[in-house]
Structure formats: structure tokens, C-alpha cells
Specification:
single chain, alpha/beta, Rossmann fold, globular
């Protein structure tokens, strides 16, 4: 695979030597520029989801590892990236100027919950909040489709995570257009122009947020149909995973092709210069977690955050406190 990220990729993810590529190789480095080329959806360009391999894991040898080996390696490189993310989050909170919104979208069983758990394991819980949006209430249906999401946005200094988000309004709603009947919309056609208008609304909404200091990081955890089947089967076969199984998820699997088309259209039309999408290979959970952690930490660092400087009055207060402590016996 690759061994280490260079200095300018400050997230500091280090991949185990045994994952660095063919035996005897020292591995290669993956810069943030490389990650952008491989995984970011280029704004304004034609996009094909089929060109992104959900099982990507670098060198071919790596794909032959057993799952328990993959899991073991996850601990090694995730620890370093989560430590760096914790430091970045502390600066974010101290500066109190920016906020971070992380959007996670994926097919069922792609690992959204696990990604949140592992990537945010070192973050101060006081500075992070997670929202999972369920079926809209009657009150929410009496407002625009973005209203309930705007109420959950992170305040300055905090990281907010949307485990599914307003993008459901151009995904599940598009695959199941009968949902629109409950949204009390004005009469009109629900064809191509309708969905393009929703893309435009989302882009303007995110533009407004970024102009006011919110860093938006959008990750699509790209899972293959075969891997989803394996994970569903595991939930059926293992007693300790039965609670994860949902018949509704299995039902939605029958709409796989419709969802893939909806995701591809969404990714192309809502990946912007101010809020680009990242297509994260998710067949190997630890690869997805490492990439999300690294991209998040590096992106926060790029804000150039610094601890707030003390004012003259605060300096006087600090000096007085030093004298008081020094005088104690």
C-alpha cells in the first residue's frame, strides 16, 4: 500500500510496513494532493462512480490479508490520525471562529456508525455532536426540506456530524418519489429540473455556511454490492450482530441500481469548490476510517487556526495570578 504521508499531510497517518506494497518494498508516500486526485469529486467535471473502486486498498498484496489482520492494522494507524484530529479539534474550539460539518452518506452497512466511533474516538465529547435524521415529523414537513437540518448545525468551535443528511432529499426521496407527496409542495412536475433545483438549493445552502466560517467535509462511503451482501449475511449468522439487521435495509437493496444512479448524479451536481465530495472506498473498513480521519484532520489544520491571543487586560490578570501563586508558601 503506502507507508507514510509526507510532512505537508499533517494528519500523520502511517500505514504498517506490511501494508506498504510488495514484500521488500519500502512503500510509497500518499500526499494530500494524491488523495485529492484519487478520491475527491472534481467540481464542474463529468463524474463516473464506476471509476472508483470500493475495494481500493493500495497494493494488491494487501487485499489478500484476512479480516482479523485488517482489523489489527486499523489500531496502529488510526491511533496516530485520531491523536492529530484531537489536537486540531482543540484549536478549533479555542479559536471559536470556525465550525466543522461532516456529512456521511452511504448505502446501508457501509460503516457510517463505525467510522464515527473510530475516527472521533480521541475528540473531546464536549466539542462534537452527532445527528442521525429519521422520518420527518409533522412540524418538519410544514417547513422547507432544509429547515430541520439547519437547526442541527454545529456552532463555532464545534464539530457536527450528520449521519445521513439533507442529501437524503435527493437520494431516498428520488428513489421513492412517493415520499414527495407528504412534503406539501406546490403542484408541478417532478422531473429532471425538479432535482436540479434541489441540487442548486443545497449548493447555495452550503455556500452560505462556508462564507460564515463552516468547513464542510462530505464523505460518500462507497460500498460494493458484494460486500454489502457479506455484511448483511454476517448480521444474520452471528447472534451478537442480529440487532444490526434490518429487513428494511434488505428491502432497499433491491433498489441498488436506482441508488447508484442517484448517488452518481448527486455527487456530480453537488461537489463544489467550497464543499467538494470525497468518494471513500469502504469495502475495507479500516481504509475508510483512516482516509476520513486523515482528510478531516488535515482540512481543519488548513484553516490555519491559532490559540487566541490574550488581550492587555487578560495579560494583567495572568500576571497578577502568577504573583499570587508565587507568594504562596
Amino acid at each position: 500500500m503506502f507507508k507514510a504521508l509526507p510532512g505537508r499531510w499533517r494528519c500523520g497517518i502511517r500505514w504498517p510496513d506490511s501494508c506498504a506494497g510488495p514484500r521488500g518494498s519500502d512503500g510509497v508516500k500518499l500526499s494530500f494532493k494524491d488523495a485529492t486526485r484519487l478520491f475527491q469529486v472534481r467540481p464542474g467535471h463529468r463524474f463516473s462512480l464506476g471509476r472508483h473502486d470500493p475495494s481500493w486498498a493500495g497494493a494488491g498484496e494487501f487485499k489478500g490479508l484476512r479480516r482479523d489482520e485488517l482489523k489489527q492494522r486499523a489500531v496502529e494507524f488510526l491511533q496516530k490520525s485520531t491523536d492529530d484530529l484531537a489536537g486540531a479539534q482543540e484549536l478549533l474550539y479555542a479559536s471559536d471562529v470556525h465550525s466543522v460539518l461532516i456529512v456521511l452518506q452511504a448505502m446501508d452497512a457501509a460503516g457510517k456508525d463505525g467510522t464515527i466511533k473510530h475516527v472521533m474516538s480521541g475528540v473531546n465529547p464536549q466539542g462534537c455532536q452527532v445527528f442521525s435524521f429519521k422520518k420527518p415529523s409533522d412540524e418538519e414537513l410544514d417547513h422547507t426540506f432544509l429547515w430541520r437540518y439547519s437547526k442541527a448545525l454545529p456552532e463555532r468551535g464545534r464539530i457536527g456530524i450528520f449521519n445521513r443528511s439533507y442529501y437524503e432529499e435527493v437520494l431516498v426521496v428520488r428513489v421513492h418519489p412517493e415520499i414527495l407527496e407528504r412534503q406539501k409542495l406546490p403542484a408541478g412536475k417532478r422531473g429532471r429540473k425538479f432535482w436540479e433545483a434541489r441540487f442548486e438549493d443545497i449548493n447555495h445552502f452550503e455556500r452560505h455556511l462556508t462564507r460564515n466560517g463552516t468547513l464542510i467535509l462530505k464523505f460518500f462511503l462507497h460500498l460494493s454490492k458484494n460486500e454489502q451482501k457479506r455484511r448483511f449475511q454476517e448480521r444474520l449468522d452471528k447472534a451478537d450482530k442480529h440487532w444490526k439487521f434490518s429487513a428494511a435495509d434488505l428491502h432497499e437493496r433491491s433498489f441498488w441500481d436506482d441508488y447508484q444512479a442517484a448517488f452518481a448524479d448527486m455527487l456530480q451536481h453537488t461537489s463544489t469548490a467550497w464543499a467538494p465530495w470525497w468518494v471513500i472506498p469502504a469495502d475495507h473498513k479500516f481504509v475508510a476510517r483512516a482516509l476520513v480521519a486523515g482528510i478531516t484532520a488535515y482540512s481543519i489544520r488548513r484553516l490555519g487556526l491559532r490559540p487566541p491571543a490574550a488581550s492587555e487586560e487578560q495579560e494583567r490578570t495572568l500576571a497578577q495570578a502568577r504573583r499570587q501563586l508565587a507568594s504562596e508558601r
